[in-house]
Amino acid sequence: MKPRAPVAPARGAAAGWRARAAALLVALSALGLGGCAMLGGAGAGAGRAAGPGAEAAAAPVVRVEVDAPAPLRDLLENHLDLSRLARLSRGDAVTDTELQRLVDAAPAQVRDLLQTEGYFRPQLAVQRQPAAAPGLPETVVLRVTPGPRVQIARVTIEAEGALEQAQVAGDERARGVLADLRGSWPLPVGSRFRNADWSDAKSAALARLRGAGYAAATWSGTAAEIDDEQHGARLFLVVDSGPLFRSGTIQVEGLQQQDAATVQALAGFRPGTPVTEALLLDYQERLLKAGLFESVTVSLDVDPALADAATLQVRLREAPVQVYTVGVGISANTGPRASLEHVYRRVFGHAVSSNNKLELGRVRQAWAGEVSTHPGERFGRWLVGGAIERLVSDDDVVTSQRLRAGRAQDTRSLEQLAFAEVERGVRSTDAAEASTIAVSANYHVTWRQLDSVLLPTEGYTLSLQGGVGHSRGSDSKRGLFTRAYGRLTAYRPLGQSWYAQARIEVGQVFLPSGVAAPESQLFRAGGDDSVRGYAYRSLGPVTDGVVGSGPVLLTGSLELARPFVASMPSLWGAVFVDAGRAGSAFGTLSPALGYGAGIRWRSPVGPLRLDLAWGQEVRKLRLHFSVGIAF
Predict the structure, then answer these.
(1) With bands split at pLDDT 50, 70 and 90, how would you rate the model's confidence at 136?
(2) Is 172 helix (H, G, I), strand (E, B) or coil?
(3) For the whole model, what pTM was predicted?
(4) Residue 414 sits in which domain range?
(5) Residues 502 and 395 in one domain
(6) The domain that contains 281 carries what CATH number?
């Protein structure tokens, strides 16, 4: 077994000598080959014979045929000096001596080029063939059998510096970082060896270590030893981790009206915390999610001398203090609508935001407003809000007024809201009118684990709601009620181009006999985001021929989608089936079935849907769509 010299420089003085020698050879090669290189560039396959209509003056001096597998043929035709001569010296006189020199040099150049692709024992044959007729170029045939490709036989990754010291001392975090560095190495044993992949793998591994808190990490030595007889490559890498960077002072640039205390509070970590890439990105995302800033950049001062208390630099641009937004839109659920929204990000100079939105439509008229403190410690904010809503359906009109106060806490994957609420609801039909007043304590929580919040293709969201209250109705007695609701939506890619989405939704209001709850606490199904193929809020318990709201809800949905063509990845087609209903009890619930097909446009502002669904129960087609414009 005779291992070849390492492809990558080895550690120490020998590595430095090899690096300097390689640089000298590259420089000499560039000087020696400059005559060909300066003639211009060309694409693969340009060395083939000129067409019958080409002029004699433009005929190549030599014609080169490369007989090799397609990817390697392109590599050789693009980079061999002999191929360059065939492409670039049309009509120029080249001596036989010069041509023979290039022919003789071709095998060595082929071997060097194939080694970059992992082929170290090719079989080569070069043959000069005389011109077929006067005025035509002679032909050089280069036959290449690349042989077996070298595979990774062994990978050894060692660390020195603070990371090695910490893991020797038993630090669990350091052990985990080193284990992750080794486990995530992009060229595992058994994979094919290419110089380009080898370089990319080193860059990726170093970036991963820097992202784990060792921002000054560098390779102190790397080598790839090739055993061309066994077709194996042994990779050796030693990383100098440098110090572990820990958080210190937070410097903020760009504040004009908002408080530095808000920026500090949204950090979410204490001084001395290891500064990882994930920590910086989470901090940046929380600042953007606060709604106070248009742009935010969080970076780390990578001075190793200050690693124990590194400075975090926050550069931001504040959003306008007040914004008015006018919108128009239309949906299958509520029909045409217009809206006016006002956002005030610093009410009367205090660290308080307000949001008011008025919506007017044929089916729904509503106002909602909220005043909340800016996020503070543990990302919490206090809020007071109110809402007035009027919903018109074929059978009834439901109005409600709410006033709530509570505390919200939002993180990257978790949103929580605890609040107390006073609510009045009125339901009017042609036959009667009933009102209910309720006071309740509520807790809502949402978990998100998605590859993209805006356009998800993998992951899940889970929303849970719970509440307990006391109600009094015009046609019912006083009493306690409890409410529970859950909605799980999962996303999963199937193969290369198909994507699945599944949803299940269940809810129940527990009411003692004779006690009523406000309409907004009860349930109805049907519509765009419920059971397609049926009108909005049309699936509920029927009393005297009138659809109402029920204390139980169960719906489900399954959808498969894929892009129409690869050239338009944002335009998808989909097929789906939905089922469900709201009712008086789960035991008597008979789900309505709807199914159909639709189109999805995954726009930069979110998915826009157009669905045509068949309602099995009503035996009708219904179009479901949603589009809106804000300006």
Answers:
(1) confident
(2) helix
(3) 0.72
(4) 322-630
(5) yes
(6) 3.10.20.310
